[in-house]
Amino acid sequence: FSLQNLAIALYDRYNCKGAAADLDDAIRLLREALTICPVDHPGRGSSLNNLAAALDDRCNRTGSMDDLDEAIQMHREALAIRPVGHPDRSSSLNNLGIALNTRYRRTGSMNDLEESIRLNREALHLHPYGHQDRCMSLNNLATALIARYGTTYLENDLDETIQLRREALILCPDGHPDRGISLS
Fold first, then answer.
1. Which of 64, 70, 71, 145 sits at a 20 to 30 Å CA gap from 175?
2. Start-end of H helices in 19-109
3. pLDDT (tens digit, 9 = 90+) per residue, 80-136?
4. Which long-range contacts (CB under 8 A, 24 or more apart) does 121-127 make?
5. How far is Cα 99 from Cα 107, in angstroms, rounded to an integer?
6. Using one digit for the tens of pLDDT, what is the confidence trace for 15-37?
7. Burial class (CB in 10 A: 0-12, 13-18, 19+), 38
8. Are 112 and 148 in contact (CB under 8 A)?
9. Angle, CA of 85, 82 and 69, to the nearest 5°
């Protein structure tokens, strides 16, 4: 836990101050912590998600496909140990869906995009009306569908994107911090 705690503190400092060295150190420590975390440890999913999130951030900063591929691998492993009914499954579905959509935007792989859509649909299903993460899931699925529309021009994708974005906007009334995102 000491490695994980130090890594998370460094990652938090990176998020506050933007020092790349903090992010690199956090990733190094998170990798080390994961190597000593048993496969059946109840905290393994969180460890995988923490490492994947840090790799996602570094990929966004540097453009490294290696970081993105490793993050996807970590997200897949986390999802695999969070079966249907697990309280953190929806988080793993969303995280993997976003990462696959990112890789689609960089490589054009329709397989990544189709999987992203499937995962985002499952995550949305786990966030019924009234769930605090429903707006995020609506937007994640809409983002993947509009990307597919940009390639295939299937009107159903565009229509569903509009429907999802409208519902997300309803969940963000005046004064909501995400209203601007939903409006745009």
1. 145
2. 20-35, 44-62, 65-80, 89-107
3. 999 999 999 999 999 999 999 999 999 999 999 999 999 999 999 999 998 989 999
4. 122/93, 123/90, 123/93, 123/94, 123/97, 126/89, 126/90, 126/93, 127/90
5. 12
6. 999 999 999 999 999 999 999 98
7. exposed
8. no
9. 145
